[in-house]
Amino acid sequence: MRRKIAVDIGTNNTVIWSDGTIVVNEPTIVALSADSEKIVAVGKEALSMLGKTPETVLQEKPVVGGVVANFSVAKAFLKIEFAKLSKSFELLRPDVMLTVPSGSTSVEKRAALEMALESGASHAYIVDATLAAAIGAGVAVSSPSGNVVLHVGADVTEAAVLSLGGIVAFQSKRVGGNTINTHIKSFLKKEYGLVVGDVTCEEIKRKLVSAIAPTEHKEMEISGRDLTFGMPRNITIKDSALFAVTEPVFEEIVSVLEIALGDTPAELSSDVIDKGIVLTGGGSYVTRFDRYITNTTGIPAHLAEDPELCAVRGAAVVLENLNLWKRSIITKA
Ligand SMILES: Nc1ncnc2c1ncn2[C@@H]1O[C@H](COP(=O)(O)OP(=O)(O)OP(=O)(O)O)[C@@H](O)[C@H]1O
Ligand SMILES: [Mg+2]
After folding, report:
1. Whose CA is nearest to atom 7 of ligand 1?
2. Which atom of ligand 1 is nearest the CA belonging to 205?
3. What's the 156 CA to ligand 1 centre distance in angstroms?
4. Model-level pTM?
5. Which domain, by its residues, includes 233?
6. 85 with 216, same domain?
7. Whole-number Å distance between alpha carbons of 75 and 96
8. What are the strands, taking DSSP E only, across 145-256?
9. How confident is the model at residue 179 (pLDDT cuts 50, 70, 90)?
10. How many domains does the chain have?
């Protein structure tokens, strides 16, 4: 039997499943030498070089807005990640299931299939990320009732209402966890004249950002570079100051869900209210995000277990039961 591999190649993170477990969970980033364009490092190693490398090394994020933007770099990245799984990968020629945003165009879907084949797959399949995420979260999507998933990634948020294994209502927007970071960065620049790095910004988000008005009065000392004088400077930032800054992002995210819910057939509406909304994707880790979604929609929302792994786990379920899911996948050999 051929080896089976499920891959969720996201804007920030790539997760790979094989033989029943998650075998890779790495940043989707490649470091290239500026002159020869040879790959110097991938994943965590490439990320650790970010902002610290000489000008002879370039960093490339091949996935932008949830879709592959740089085909050759993405392919090279996958080849290296696959090679880590097995020395004889090229000979094994596994079956590969890729997740793609449900809002991808058919051209993007074909490109994803090509990429998997050119990275060494013998058969390539793709499945919608929202469907995969719901399956991976343990939702019974094959049942004849309405199930709602809100999948919040780094750059993309997708909401889908699923019934009988298919998508009955759907919406997607270019907003996600990284949008919060962008808002934090521009706020610190404008209010304090301070430029902060990506790592600091991510730390601020995880510690201080809350989707509903914070009550704990948390604060944090952060370091950055003074915009005017170029010197390092520290400031203390409060959770309450960030709330107004990030609130519009949550409003944008919930609007994705509201549009999908608005398109839901009336027959499924009562199921949706009964079953609630499952939250997947790393972006849904934000403090009190589940409460925010519950409060704004009036429908109970639950954070899935390991939300950032749901899509790849669901893709693995589909790959292991191709016959059951044949109507939900696109394939090429
Ligand atoms: N504890 C946390 N608190 C807040 N945000 C978090 C936390 N952990 C991860 N995130 C956010 O989750 C996002 C990454 O999620 P995920 O790995 O699902 O995205 P992705 O698949 O790379 O992106 P996309 O699906 O948009 O292509 C990032 O924006 C990250 O900051
Ligand atoms: Mg994703």
Report:
1. 285
2. 4
3. 10
4. 0.96
5. 139-303
6. no
7. 13
8. 147-152, 157-163, 166-173, 194-195, 219-226, 232-238
9. very high
10. 2
